[in-house]
Amino acid sequence: MRSLLVLPLLVALVAGATLDFNHYWTAQEMNEYIDELTSEFPTLATAVNVGTSTEGRPIRAIRVSKDNVANRPVVIVEAGIRAREWISPMSANYILHEIVEHYYEFENILDNVNFLVVPLLNPDGYEFSRTTNRHWLKSRSVNGNGCFGIDLTRNFGYLWNTVGGSADACSDSFVGTAAFSAPETAAMRDLIESNSANLVLYLSIQSADQMVLYPFSHSAMTHPSNVAELRTLGNSVALALMSQNGRIFTTGGAGLLQPAASGSSIDFVAGTVQPDLVFTLETGAGGSYGYDVPEAQMGEILNETTHGFLTMAEYVANNK
């Protein structure tokens, strides 16, 4: 696999603005990048309107399909589900930068796989974290009594509200009033289900526990029937991640390596759609809390995360 770019990188936009991967983008800049890619690479990239957030922001995706061939295996990448994990949406955008702008480097993958990448599932929480409260995790739903937000990682409709969440609307782990009560998770559900026939890999990019996790989140003892395949591929991804900057990554069941919690996106996908491959990639850590990666460290983490993703993508291209 070729060495990905980690030096200062400029991406010129139609409007004359300049995006680079040395600073954290706003939600609007991410939308501008989607527009730029789909304008410049119309036979490869198509914008998808996934839904609308609580505060009315668009939730968007890019479908990457070489020559717009529809019947290939599909990989869905979900990022930006937790507001304060800014490195997650930046990783998704860097992945798009690689597979779209440098498409000629990935012919085997693009000849055999289509991608749906949602760079920012939680735009309201992300912007609130950027402007008001750096530690904000949830969405920005109005819960009453001065409380806001749902933990979107606990709002998906598979064994919803059975373990690891809170019914307290002020809690960071508030599960919502019902499964898919958040418009963000409902929109993601619809995107998943509308692509379920060809879905072979679902990847949630989060930060920053330095782990490659497979289902299930709700239990340390429950795994998909192909757990051996998941473990083998997860180990390969972890090795690819570690080979870049020397950070240690651990592979295992999500409910074993993290506190058990129901309502995650990977549990929903693995428990209902049941594609062969479902993972959470917890990126490299930095800063004081892990998720607050300094901009000076962005390049190396984007580089290693993309290597991990490409390891999964190559596996799908060669085996599914």
Structure, explained:
- By secondary structure, the chain is α/β, with parallel strands linked by helices.
- The protein contains 9 helices and 12 strands.
- Helix 2 packs across helix 9 and helix 6 runs antiparallel to helix 9 (298-319).
Biggest β-sheet strands, sense, barrel: 8 strands, mixed
* Fraction of residues in H or I helices: 25-40%
Assembly annotation: single chain
Strand order in the sheet with the most strands: 3-4-6-5-9-12-10-11
Tell me, rounded to a whole number, the average pLDDT. 94
DSSP helix count?
9
Name the overall outline: globular
Number of strands: 12
Given as residue ranges, the uncertain stretches (5+ residues, pLDDT < 50) are 5-18
Strand-and-helix sequence, N→C?
EEHEEEHHEHEEHEEHEHHEH
End-to-end C-alpha gap: 20 Å
- Quote the beta fraction: 15-25%
Q: Measured on Cα atoms, how large is the radius of gyration?
A: 18 Å
Summing up helix and strand content along with how strands pair, one would put the structural category as alpha/beta
Sequence-ordered SSE layout with sheet pairings:
Elements: E1 10-12, E2 18-20, H1 27-40, E3 45-52, E4 58-64, E5 74-79, H2 87-101, H3 107-112, E6 114-118, H4 123-131, E7 142-144, E8 147-148, H5 183-194, E9 199-207, E10 211-214, H6 227-245, E11 250-253, H7 254-257, H8 265-273, E12 277-283, H9 298-319
Parallel strand pairs: 5-6, 5-9, 9-12, 10-11
Antiparallel strand pairs: 1-2, 3-4, 4-6, 7-8, 10-12
